[in-house]
Amino acid sequence: MLTAAGDDEPDLVVGQDPPTEAATPRVLTIISHVMEKLVARNEWLAKQTKGFGKSLEAFHGVRAPSISIGKYLDRIYKYTKCSPACFVVGYVYIDRLAHKHPGSLVVSTNVHRLLVTCVMIASKILDDV
């Protein structure tokens, strides 16, 4: 195998891009995919039932933000320096909230606000020293 580094540096295969420190952790990609599927299903349910519960009303916006969930999580990760564990715990908080209030749906008008709030709370618990 041809390498581009010396003996004291990590081996890099010629022709491969070096890993970047700012790369998005895979767990964020997975969480964003799961959240997008959840929102799509809940949007469909909201149309079928003509609305949703009032317990998440404080998080509703007038319209859905133009930024995707994946890009939103990337921005939070990039600018807040939260550990990937905060995003996992934040997702768990949203899941618990959805189970506690089954009549309320996580939809496109509230998902971004729920995400930033839950990640912030998880960061305070996990990352603050």
How are the elements arranged and paired?
Elements: H1 26-49, H2 69-80, H3 84-100, H4 111-126
Helix pairs in contact: 1-2, 2-4, 3-4
InterPro entries: Cyclin-like_sf (IPR036915), Cyclin_P/U (IPR012389), Cyclin_PHO80-like (IPR013922)
Family: Belongs to the cyclin family. Cyclin U/P subfamily.
Organism: Arabis nemorensis
Describe this structure in words.
The chain is mostly helical and 129 residues long. It has a single domain (26-126), classed as Cyclin A, domain 1 (Orthogonal Bundle). Helices cover 53% and strands 0% of the residues. It has 4 helices and no strands. It has helices at residues 26-49, 69-80, 84-100, 111-126. α1 crosses α2, α2 runs parallel beside α4 and α3 packs across α4 (111-126). The longest helix has 24 residues, at 26-49. The protein is globular. 20% of the residues are buried. This is Cyclin N-terminal domain-containing protein. Residues 1-11 have a biased composition (Acidic residues). Belongs to the cyclin family. Cyclin U/P subfamily.
